[in-house]
Amino acid sequence: MTPDEATQIARPWALASLPVSAGEVGLYEFEHGYVAWARVPAGDPDRPPEIVGAPLAVVDKESGELTTWPSLSPQGVAELYELEVTARERFPEDVRTVLTAAGWRSDRSVAAWVESWATGVPLPLFPVARRVLEEFGGLKFRQLKPVGQATGGFDVQFWPTEARVLVDLFAEHAGDIGMPVFPIAIYEDGPSDICVSADGRVFLLHEAGEFLIGATPDEAIVRLVRGEPFTEVDTDGEIVAPS
Questions:
Q1: Angle at CA 64, nearest 5°, toward 62 and 70?
Q2: For residue 117, which of 157, 186, 163, 155 has the smallest C-alpha distance?
Q3: Half-sphere exposure of 137 (CA within 13 A, CB side)
């Protein structure tokens, strides 16, 4: 996608959003696209017009798709778009939609809260657990309900807004699998508890048994959001072979 091609794509948008521009477009190039704005007569060609609420657009370099963005600096819009690209690569669209509605964004951090949340919990807050809580702590969403499956449709509350820290339960699981675990969420079914181990695996500790949600936190997030079935594990955390 060249600047000229991006300009041609943005012209109709510029004319519709700001008719006085006559379809003239300013561009700011960055790694994944071009930030575009409607240029006004006698305005600075290198910056958007100082019109309150005037939107900007991004033309994606790979797809040519044009999307509209808030009235920020071109650099600010480019930074937001880069975060969006990262999120697209990380989570599928249906998962991003649920997470975003819950308040998540790819640069979300509640690091300042994590220490206070963990105070008084006699379990080691190791790096993987800290990262998960800093990004997702406090979020709540209802799972999607897969068509034709009995799974899904439950609330997931990332600890510790509604914390119920069953220390003995987690300590026992940690002893069984031979490494530390830390609680990260409460699952409505049961209710039951979700924890992450020091190697990044995410488990559900349910009255019906123990289950592997994902081998990594991101894999677990996808399966949780989509309401996909979890994988049964034995008391050592190893996957139970189908009988």
A1: 105
A2: 163
A3: 23
Let me know the angle formed at the C-alpha of 88 by 131 and 71, rounded to the nearest 5 degrees.
95
Instruction: State if pTM tops 0.85.
Output: no
Those residues whose C-beta lies under 8 Å from the C-beta of residue 227, and which sit 6 or more positions away, are 143, 144, 145, 146, 149, 151, 152, 153, 154
- Angle subtended at Cα 217 by Cα 211 and Cα 218, rounded to the nearest 5 degrees: 115
CB 122: neighbour CB atoms within 10 A? 8
pLDDT tens for each residue of 172-227: 999 999 999 999 999 999 899 999 999 999 999 999 999 999 999 999 999 999 99
| CB 144 within 8 Å of CB 101 | no
pLDDT digits (tens, 9 = 90+) for 121-143: 888 999 999 999 999 999 999 99
- In three-state secondary structure terms, 166 is coil
Domain layout of the chain by residue ranges = 3-90, 108-233
Q: What angle do CA 107, 111, 115 make, to 5 degrees?
A: 165
